[in-house]
Design a protein that fits this description.
Shape: globular
Strand order of the largest sheet: 1-2-4-6
Strand content: 25-35%
Helix content: 25-40%
Radius of gyration: 13 Å
Number of strands: 8
Structural class: alpha/beta
Number of domains: 1
CATH topology: Transcription Regulator spoIIAA
Distance between the termini: 34 Å
CATH architecture: 2-Layer Sandwich
């Protein structure tokens, strides 16, 4: 599993496949004021990026992968300050609530 929670910080490690998107949602849902450490992330599936865009956690750490470092992380950081959606696990997917 590429999602690990330690001391209130969510770590994304190695290759983060689509299968781990639900674990990321669960971790973001249960950690108050979540911070995601991206330092050990080598590859991030689009579904994982979408989860991060929805929850908009604080990010820390710089991945070695040039694409993640130069394009994905800046895009996620630009979304900071935007009010996150309310997302809940429903069946096999996510349900989003907007105001």
């Amino acid at each position: 599993m590429s999602v690990r929670v330690e001391n209130g910080v969510i770590h994304l490690e190695g290759i983060c496949p689509v299968e781990d998107a639900e674990a990321l949602v669960s971790a973001l849902d249960r950690v108050s004021g979540p911070t995601v450490d991206m330092a050990a992330c080598r590859q991030l599936h689009g579904a994982m990026v979408q989860v991060l865009l929805v929850f908009r956690p604080s990010l820390r750490g710089t991945p070695e992968d040039a694409f993640l470092r130069d394009y994905v992380i800046p895009a996620l950081e630009r979304s900071e300050g935007i009010e996150p959606c309310q997302a809940n696990l429903v069946g096999d997917g996510l349900a989003f609530a907007t105001e």
